[in-house]
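Hello Y.,

Per our agreement to keep a running log of every chain we model this quarter, I'm adding this entry. I've kept the format consistent with earlier entries: sequence first, then predicted structure.
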Amino acid sequence: MKKIIVTLLVAVLALSAVALAETYKSDDLSFKYDADAFDVEVDDRTDDETTVVLTGKDAAWGQTYVRFYLKELEKGETFPTPAEFKPIADVEVTQGDWNGFKDVFMYTVENDDGTSQHFFVAPVADDDDGEIEDLLTVEIGTTAIDDADAAARRDDLISAVVDSLVVDD
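Predicted structure for the entry above:
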């Protein structure tokens, strides 16, 4: 009987966790997020650009956001080569695979005010012909915080959002 009760309790907890997960979906982007942890703001400037920003609600997290920016490449425009790619800040840029994307430029900017920004700039290929048609930039901004538990929760929730990201072209 105890085993059944424990199993039911685990199932209820799992269902409640799933129930908290909201899904954001547009024509181009979708991801899951915890609506209790993040506010979502969408800025569709043009048909060719989409910006979605998740802002952390927990005051213990300091400044926290995840910004997805998807831009359609113009005709003749290509994804930059490593030699052509230069971020604004003078930082070390690495290139590799990230979150299912290939040849992603990755870099971090550490600011004097204790905030940092982590950037991932990815080419997005069309599903039909494999040609790179979009540029995805993911920016994760965080404040250094002393509360290890709050930092771990924040980082886990950010990772869950980013890991669930799907780009539909």
